[in-house]
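Input (structure):
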């Protein structure tokens, strides 16, 4: 199929995205809004490997040249970029019953905002760099690899402590499912590819929270928009089980490299 060359919808939300953790946070919310309120959206897949996000028509909407972006055709073609801003925008305008968000003047709103900021400024960038140095560059750099994988571990330790005695990140009591959880899930669903092999044992509260979210049908649909990532935990595990393209040997090599990098720089897990 040819790559998008401009907007195609005339009404509703138009989502411009790709199969990445940052993209999934928005597609999950849009699937939840469609299920709860019947709010439709139009999808265009922006293939970041082909640099479609750098085309002038796209950067007119998103000056940063990244995904995701939404355009709200029901509000004069208003464009929003950056995942945290999109989640807040959609909740503010299209979640009137606060099924997935909190009233703006509530402390719960502030708590959700803080954890979304934590993801946006911490977990996402650190895990993204961990993936980059662990898997996507030809020149292996031990210091950078153990630094970013270690910081990713530290951050999941912070999240695990937050989820002790809680079902969700924000909200009263044991918490309530919200955009704060959605903002984190895409990253938390690809931890195996990030070098966190013993995730369930190391972060049991995050594991239980992740399983709770993945049981939601709208979440599963959102994680398939526009397609499932080969680096999602389930997909990655299947590649290993099938030994697709020598996946097992490659995984052992990655694991050994990470172990050696941690030993070389005397890495010791600690959180916070």
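Output (sequence):
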């Amino acid at each position: 199929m040819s790559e998008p060359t401009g907007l195609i919808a005339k009404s509703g939300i138009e989502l411009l995205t790709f199969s990445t953790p940052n993209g999934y946070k928005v597609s999950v919310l849009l699937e939840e809004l469609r299920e709860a309120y019947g709010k439709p959206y139009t999808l265009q897949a922006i293939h970041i490997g082909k640099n479609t996000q750098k085309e002038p028509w796209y950067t007119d909407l998103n000056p940063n040249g990244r995904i995701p972006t939404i355009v709200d055709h029901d509000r004069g073609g208003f464009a929003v970029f950056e995942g945290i801003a999109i989640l807040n925008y959609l909740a503010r305008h299209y979640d009137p019953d606060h099924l997935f968000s909190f009233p703006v003047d509530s402390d719960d709103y502030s708590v959700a905002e803080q954890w979304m900021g934590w993801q946006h400024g911490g977990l996402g960038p650190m895990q993204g760099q961990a993936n980059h140095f662990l898997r996507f560059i030809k020149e292996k750099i031990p210091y950078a690899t153990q630094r970013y994988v270690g910081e990713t571990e530290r951050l999941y330790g912070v999240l695990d402590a937050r989820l002790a005695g809680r079902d969700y990140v924000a909200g009263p009591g044991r918490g309530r499912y919200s955009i704060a959880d959605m903002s984190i899930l895409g990253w938390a669903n690809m931890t195996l590819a990030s070098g966190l092999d013993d995730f369930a044992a190391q972060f049991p509260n995050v594991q239980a929270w992740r399983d709770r979210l993945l049981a939601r049908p709208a979440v599963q649909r959102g994680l398939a928009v526009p397609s499932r990532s080969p680096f999602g935990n389930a997909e990655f595990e299947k590649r290993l089980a099938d030994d697709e393209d020598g996946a097992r040997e490659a995984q052992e090599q990655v694991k050994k490299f990470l172990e050696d990098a941690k030993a070389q720089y005397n890495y010791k897990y600690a959180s916070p």
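Notes: Strands lie at 13-17, 41-45, 69-72, 78-81. The chain has eleven helices and four strands.
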